[in-house]
Automatic annotation (TrEMBL):
Domain Endonuclease/exonuclease/phosphatase: 6-254
Biological source species: Georgenia daeguensis
Protein name according to UniProt: Endonuclease/exonuclease/phosphatase domain-containing protein
Length: 271
């Protein structure tokens, strides 16, 4: 059995319910997040909106700090690179010196790491703004899937983390690409993260049912006033070994979501 936690970290910004709400992210909030995550007892931690060397969060390598505090190995993959001034820009590499993206932390042995870029939606019109002005347009940037093949007592387990577009049609396409990429690795498979899709649209996508099925249900957004679930744990060849838990931490505008998973029993072959 493996316990998995997904959390949109929001660069460890204090939660609205925290005593330091409205304050900056920094070493203290990252350490606090690490202590709270440790209390979940997860074997695998899937993080989104993680900063690495970004000015707004004190220039920390947040994944490295959390992994050290939790006694886990880790990998970070960026969807955006950060400039010295703190601006976030599209990047062609998943490992810039400074950036913003996802991280996978684990106490299980890692056989291999994998990264897959997920194309964004590109330029789009902003409602209510003239198209001839710069602020009349937005840019839906690319995202990234980070995956690891883990070694367990029952054999390999492939786990991926991603943070999808806020544009639903783009998020569903990215989810399909991410799921198919993950499924090329040794199974069973688990994909988690902030998918920016509620359970209804998620089930209507071409990914679920068929390839990956939901393993955990719970209201995760917002952390202070939970109204919907956009953070998910999906699996193939896995079943939940107990009820999911929602974790309202003192950082982030998202709650964490965890569940214990085990391999699905294969039906016996009759003769």
């Amino acid at each position: 059995m493996v316990r998995v936690l997904t959390l949109n970290l929001q660069h460890a910004a204090p939660a609205r319910t925290a005593a330091d709400a409205g304050g900056p992210a920094g070493a203290a909030t990252v350490r606090r997040a690490g202590d709270e995550i440790a209390g979940v007892g997860a074997d695998v931690v899937l993080l989104q909106e993680v900063d690495r060397g970004v000015r707004r969060s004190g220039g920390l390598d947040q994944a490295a700090v959390l992994a050290d505090r939790l006694g886990m190995s880790y990998r970070f993959a960026a969807s955006l690179a950060a400039t010295r001034g703190g601006s976030l820009l599209p990047t062609r590499t998943s490992t810039p010196g400074r950036g913003y993206g996802v991280a996978l932390l684990t106490r299980l042995p890692v056989t291999s790491w994998h990264v897959r870029r997920l194309r964004g939606g590109g330029p789009g019109r902003r409602r209510g703004h003239p198209p001839w002005l710069p602020h009349g347009w937005s840019w839906d940037v690319g995202r990234v899937l980070l995956a690891a093949v883990l070694r367990t007592e029952d054999g390999p387990l492939s786990v991926g983390v991603t943070h999808l577009s806020v544009v639903p049609v783009v998020a569903r396409r990215q989810l399909a690409v991410a799921a198919r990429a993950l499924l090329t690795l040794p199974g069973p498979h688990l994909l988690g993260g902030d998918l920016n899709l509620a359970p209804g649209p998620l089930s209507a996508s071409e990914v679920v049912p068929g390839l990956l099925a939901p393993l955990a249900t719970g209201l995760t957004f917002t952390n202070a006033r939970p109204r919907t679930q956009i953070d998910h744990l999906l699996g193939a060849g896995l079943v939940a070994a107990g009820p999911a838990e929602v974790h309202h931490l003192s950082v982030s505008d998202h709650a964490g979501l965890s569940v214990d998973v085990r391999r699905a029993h294969r039906p016996a072959v009759g003769g």
